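thread from #wetlab-drylab

HS: before we spend reagent money on co-crystallization trials with zinc ion, can we at least see a predicted complex? here's what I'd submit
DV: go for it
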Amino acid sequence: MNAATKWLIRDAYQSGEPPHEIALRFDLPETDVNRALRSLKKAKKPAPKERSCKPVTFRVVLINYDADLRKALIEKLRTTPLYLDWRRKVLKLDRYRCRECGNKGRLQVDHIYPLSAIIHNYQINSLEEAAECELIWRVSNGRTLCAICHSRTDTHGAKAKRLWVTANEVD
Ligand SMILES: [Zn+2]
């Protein structure tokens, strides 16, 4: 199970969805869901200084969804000092090398739980809302990859859309 799916499972659990329902929705055995939840409980909690965002419930039907607005928002977000600071922290942690192949060239910093999926699933509509979303700024949700390894991930670009929660999945 990839890390992004684990985070989605945790978020669903935290918004009150019982494990057996999560298992049904993700088409996974319930034992896998419970294992994912246990492994995340062991993960280090974010420092108290970090802001936390309130995950939207997965029962919410997405209304007023504006793909262009969110795309523009992501572009704007990538130029903010907060974003550049997060990027620097991840690069430093990974010692300025691709985490997959160790290359030092053409490095990109990627959100493991993809940024577009966060923006979509948490219904973030402004830079202010993004600033309040701890998951975007969690250093452990970042990884340094070279352009080639990045393009090979199962969440690269539009491929991240499979992690978007859609209105169809809600009911
Ligand atoms: Zn690489």
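DV: The longest strand covers residues 107-111.
HS: ok that's useful, forwarding to the group
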